[in-house]
C-alpha cells in the first residue's frame, strides 16, 4: 500500500510532545468526492477546517511497527459539501505506542521520533483529481496539548496561543503499509461520579464507583490560568486513603490550565485505568462534582452475550468480567490498563478467548491481533509471550502463553466459522509444534527454557509468583493440548495430520510415564501456601490431566476424587493460578462433580471469584488476594485490580451451567446440556450468534425445573436434559419441565 503524493513528516527539533502540522489548500472547483488516507508511527488525529474526521481514538492502532503499520481510509466528502475556495488541513501527532515508553524503561521501542503521513485526494465535478500530501511545506504549530504519554498522562493549557515554530521535517520511515483491519478504539460508556470525599490523610478524592479504562472528562468555567490536576487509582488502602502504588512508574497525571471561558478537557493520546481520582490542584476551594465524568474507551466490539441469574453476587461477578474485557480490549488484548505495562500478553488472551467471543463479537479484533502474532513468530517457530513484540525486551516463549498461536485461532474458528483465518494461522500453529519438538529433543517431555508455570497460583509459599505445579508437567500438558488442536484444525482444512497424531500419542505416553503413577500424579499433594516448590500433585495438574485427556480412562474417577480431596483439604477452595483456573470447573463437571464445581463458583473466602466481589471489586483482579481480609495490599509491583484472565470462568457458566456448546462452528448446531443448581435459582442467557439470537433459560420452581429455549433460524440444537431425555430441535421456542 503506497501513498502517491505524500512524505513522512516529523516535527523540528525542540517541538513539544504533540506537534500540530497545518496546510492550507486551494480548491479548484466543486468537490464531488474526497478521500483521506493517513497513518503514523505514533498516534494521530486529522482535522479539516478544525473538525475531526473521525471519532476513533489512538489511530493507527498498535502493531509491530517495524513489520507493518495500518493505514486508515476516510470518506471526508462531507467536509467539502459547501462550495469554498480554501480548506485547512491539520494533523496532531503523539508518541503513542511507537515512540513512547513501553513497559519498564523501554523508550522509543519502534522509532526515535513520532512521524506521520497523510494524503487527501479530491475528485472534482469535472472528474479531475488533485492530491494533497504531507511534506516539508506543512507548517508546525504549538497547540494546547503540550505533553502526552500513554503512562504519564497529559498536560493541556487552554491559555496558549498557537504559534508557528517552523516547518515539518521530511523523514525516512521504513515500514510496510497495510489497510486497517482492526476494530477502532472508541469512547463508550459514560460513568458519573458517585461521591466526593476527603480521606483520613486529607486528600480530596472522587469515586466513580466503577473501575474502567478510559479517561476523565472535565467541563468547567473558571479563572484564566486556573488549574486542575489529578491522578488516578483503582483502590483505597485499608484506612480509606488514596492508593496507587500498584501503578509502579506510570504517573498518569492529567493537568489542565483554564482559558477563563467555558472549557472542556480530556486526553487526546493517553488513557488511564481507574475508579478514583485524587484532586491535587483545583482552581477554587470547593470542587464542583458536576464538572467531572469518566468515559470508558475500548475497541468498538459489539456486545453479543447477556446473562443474569438468581444470585446477585454472581451477577456482579459477570459485570466484573464484562468491564474487565472492555478495559483490556483496547486494540490489542492487554493484561491491564493502569500500570506501566498494558501489553498484549498471550497467556491472558488465550485463557479468556472463549469467554471473550461469548461476551462480544471479537472476530475482527482477533483477526488483526492474530495477524500480528503470525508476523511476530520467529523463524524457529517460537512465539514470544507478548504480541505485538516490544522492541528492547525479549518476552521469551512460554507454555500456556505462546500456545495462544494454536488456541486462539481454534476458538475464533469455533465461534465464527472463519475457515480462512484458520487456514492463515495453520502454518504458524504447525511451526509452534515444530519449535517445541526441537526443544524437547526426542524426549517428548518439554522441560527446556523459561516458563511462567501456573502463574499466581496460591499453592506455593505466600509472595511467590509461580505456583507449586511442576512446570515441565504444565509444559508437556500444553504441548499435548496444542497438538490436539493442530490435529483438529488440520482435519477441518483437509491436511494430512497423521504425523501429528503419532506425535501426540508419544507425548501423552511420555507424560503418563513421567508424571503419573498408579493413576495419580507423582509427588506430595500441594495445599494452599505449601512449602513444596514443585510437585506434580496439585489441583492444576489434576485439572489439566482430566480436561486435556492425559490420563487413562480407567483412572478418571480416581483422579476426580483426588481433585475433590485436594479442594476439600483447602477448605473447599481453589489453589489454581492462570493456567489451572480456566479448566478446574470443567474438569469437575465433565466427571460428574457439578456439586463441587458450583461450590467453588460460590465460594466466598479467598482464593475465590466471590471474595473480590465481597471486597467491592467492579472488575476482575490479577491476584485472588490482591487485597486480603484485613484490607492489606498483596504486592505493589504486580497487583492489578483490572486483569480479566480469571474471568474465563464464564465459559464454564455458559458451557456447563447454562449448557451451551457448539457442535458446528459459528453455533450452526449446538448441544444444550444444562447443569442446573438450586443455589443459582435460575439462569437466563441470550447470545447473538451468526444465525441470530440463541436463548437458554432454566428456573427452579416449587415442583421441578423449567427449561426455555429459543433457537434462531438456520441453526439447530440437540437438547439433553438432566433426566436423560433428548430432543432434536430447529428454529422456534421450546419449553420443557423436569421433576
Give an account of the 3D structure:
- The chain is of the alpha+beta class and 739 residues long.
Write the layout of secondary structure elements.
Layout: E1 9-10, E2 20-26, E3 31-41, E4 43-48, E5 51-52, E6 69-75, E7 86-94, H1 96-99, E8 115-124, E9 129-133, E10 139-141, E11 145-149, E12 153-157, E13 164-167, E14 169-170, E15 177-179, E16 185-191, E17 195-198, E18 204-221, E19 227-233, E20 235-236, E21 242-243, E22 253-257, E23 262-265, E24 272-281, E25 292-299, E26 305-309, H2 312-328, E27 329-330, E28 332-333, H3 346-359, H4 363-376, H5 404-416, H6 419-440, H7 471-492, H8 498-515, E29 516-517, E30 520-521, H9 539-547, H10 556-569, H11 581-589, H12 594-602, H13 609-614, H14 650-658, E31 660-662, E32 669-672, E33 682-689, E34 692-701, E35 704-711, E36 716-720, E37 726-729, E38 732-738
Helix pairs in contact: 3-5, 4-5, 4-6, 5-6, 6-7, 7-8, 9-10, 9-11, 11-12
Structural class: alpha+beta
Count of beta strands: 38
Spans of at least 5 consecutive residues whose pLDDT stays below 50 are none
Question: How many angstroms separate the termini?
Answer: 64 Å
Backbone shape: globular
Rg over C-alpha atoms, rounded to the nearest angstrom = 27 Å
Give a short account of the largest sheet: 10 strands, mixed
Strand content: 25-35%
Number of helices: 14
> Helix fraction?
10-25%
Which whole number gives the mean pLDDT? 96
Amino acid at each position: 500500500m503506497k501513498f502517491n503524493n505524500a512524505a513522512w513528516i516529523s516535527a523540528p527539533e525542540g517541538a513539544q510532545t504533540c506537534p500540530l502540522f497545518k496546510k492550507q489548500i486551494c480548491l479548484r472547483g466543486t468537490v464531488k468526492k474526497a478521500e483521506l488516507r493517513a497513518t503514523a508511527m505514533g498516534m494521530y488525529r486529522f482535522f479539516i477546517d478544525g473538525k475531526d474526521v473521525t471519532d476513533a481514538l489512538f489511530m493507527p492502532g498498535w502493531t509491530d511497527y517495524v513489520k507493518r503499520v495500518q493505514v486508515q481510509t476516510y470518506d471526508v466528502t462531507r467536509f467539502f459539501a459547501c462550495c469554498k475556495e480554501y480548506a485547512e488541513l491539520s494533523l496532531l501527532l503523539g508518541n503513542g505506542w511507537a515512540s513512547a515508553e513501553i513497559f519498564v524503561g523501554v523508550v522509543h521501542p519502534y522509532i526515535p521520533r513520532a512521524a506521520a503521513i497523510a494524503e487527501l485526494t479530491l475528485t472534482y465535478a469535472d472528474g479531475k483529481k488533485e492530491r494533497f500530501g504531507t511534506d516539508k511545506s506543512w507548517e508546525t504549530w504549538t497547540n494546547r496539548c503540550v505533553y502526552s504519554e500513554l503512562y504519564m498522562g497529559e498536560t493541556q493549557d487552554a491559555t496558549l496561543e498557537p504559534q508557528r515554530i517552523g516547518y515539518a521535517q521530511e523523514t525516512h520511515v521504513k515500514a510496510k503499509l497495510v489497510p486497517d483491519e482492526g476494530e477502532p478504539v472508541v469512547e463508550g460508556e459514560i460513568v458519573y461520579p458517585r461521591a466526593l470525599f476527603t480521606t483520613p490523610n486529607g486528600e480530596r478524592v472522587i469515586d466513580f464507583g466503577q473501575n474502567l479504562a478510559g479517561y476523565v472528562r472535565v467541563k468547567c468555567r473558571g479563572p484564566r490560568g486556573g488549574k486542575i490536576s489529578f491522578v488516578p487509582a483503582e483502590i483505597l488502602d485499608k484506612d480509606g486513603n488514596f492508593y496507587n502504588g500498584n501503578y509502579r512508574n506510570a504517573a498518569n497525571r492529567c493537568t489542565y490550565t483554564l482559558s477563563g471561558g467555558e472549557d472542556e478537557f480530556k486526553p487526546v493520546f493517553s488513557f488511564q485505568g481507574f475508579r478514583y481520582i485524587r484532586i491535587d490542584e483545583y482552581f477554587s476551594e470547593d470542587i464542583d462534582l458536576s464538572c467531572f465524568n469518566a468515559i470508558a474507551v475500548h475497541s468498538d466490539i459489539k456486545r453479543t452475550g447477556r446473562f443474569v441469574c438468581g444470585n446477585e453476587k454472581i451477577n456482579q461477578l459477570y459485570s466484573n468480567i464484562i468491564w474487565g474485557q472492555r478495559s483490556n480490549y483496547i486494540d490489542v488484548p492487554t493484561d491491564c490498563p493502569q500500570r506501566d505495562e498494558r501489553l498484549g500478553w498471550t497467556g491472558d488472551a488465550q485463557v479468556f478467548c472463549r469467554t471473550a467471543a461469548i461476551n462480544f463479537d471479537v472476530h475482527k479484533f482477533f483477526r488483526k491481533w492474530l495477524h500480528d502474532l503470525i508476523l511476530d513468530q520467529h523463524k524457529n517457530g517460537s512465539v514470544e509471550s507478548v504480541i505485538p513484540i516490544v522492541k528492547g525486551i525479549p518476552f521469551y516463549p512460554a507454555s500456556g502463553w505462546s500456545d495462544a498461536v494454536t488456541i486462539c485461532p481454534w476458538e475464533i474458528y469455533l465461534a465464527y466459522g472463519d475457515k480462512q483465518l484458520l487456514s492463515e494461522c495453520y502454518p504458524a500453529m504447525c511451526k509452534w509444534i515444530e519449535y517445541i519438538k526441537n526443544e524437547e529433543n526426542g524426549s517428548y517431555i518439554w522441560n527446556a527454557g523459561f516458563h511462567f508455570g501456573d502463574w499466581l497460583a496460591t499453592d506455593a509459599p505466600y509472595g511467590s509468583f509461580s505456583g507449586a505445579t511442576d512446570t515441565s508437567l504444565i509444559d508437556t500438558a500444553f504441548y499435548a493440548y496444542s497438538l490436539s488442536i493442530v490435529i483438529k484444525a488440520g482435519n477441518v482444512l483437509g491436511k494430512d495430520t497423521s504425523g501429528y497424531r503419532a506425535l501426540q500419542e508419544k507425548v501423552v505416553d511420555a507424560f503418563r510415564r513421567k508424571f503419573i503413577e498408579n493413576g495419580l500424579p507423582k509427588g506430595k499433594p500441594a495445599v494452599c501456601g505449601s512449602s513444596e516448590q514443585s510437585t506434580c500433585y496439585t489441583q492444576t495438574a489434576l485439572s489439566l490431566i482430566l480436561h486435556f485427556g492425559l490420563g487413562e480412562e480407567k483412572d478418571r474417577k480416581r483422579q476426580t476424587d483426588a481433585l475433590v480431596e485436594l479442594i476439600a483439604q483447602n477448605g473447599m477452595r481453589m489453589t489454581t493460578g492462570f493456567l489451572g483456573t480456566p479448566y478446574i470447573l470443567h474438569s469437575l463437571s465433565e466427571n460428574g462433580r457439578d456439586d463441587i464445581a458450583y461450590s467453588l463458583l460460590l465460594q466466598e473466602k479467598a482464593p475465590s471469584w466471590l471474595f473480590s466481589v465481597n471486597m467491592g471489586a467492579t472488575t476482575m483482579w490479577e491476584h485472588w488476594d490482591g487485597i486480603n481480609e484485613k484490607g492489606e495490599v498483596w504486592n505493589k509491583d504486580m497487583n492489578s485490580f483490572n486483569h480479566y484472565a480469571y474471568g474465563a470462568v464464564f465459559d464454564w457458566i455458559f458451557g456447563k451451567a447454562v449448557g451451551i456448546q457448539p457442535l458446528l462452528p459459528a453455533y450452526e448446531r449446538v448441544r444444550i446440556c444444562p447443569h442446573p443448581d438450586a443455589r443459582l435459582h435460575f439462569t437466563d442467557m441470550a447470545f447473538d450468534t451468526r444465525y441470530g439470537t440463541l436463548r437458554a433459560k432454566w428456573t427452579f420452581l416449587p415442583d421441578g425445573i423449567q427449561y426455555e429455549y429459543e433457537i434462531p433460524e438456520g441453526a439447530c440444537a440437540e437438547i439433553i436434559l438432566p433426566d436423560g431425555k433428548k430432543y432434536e430441535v430447529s428454529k422456534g421456542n421450546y419449553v420443557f419441565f423436569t421433576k
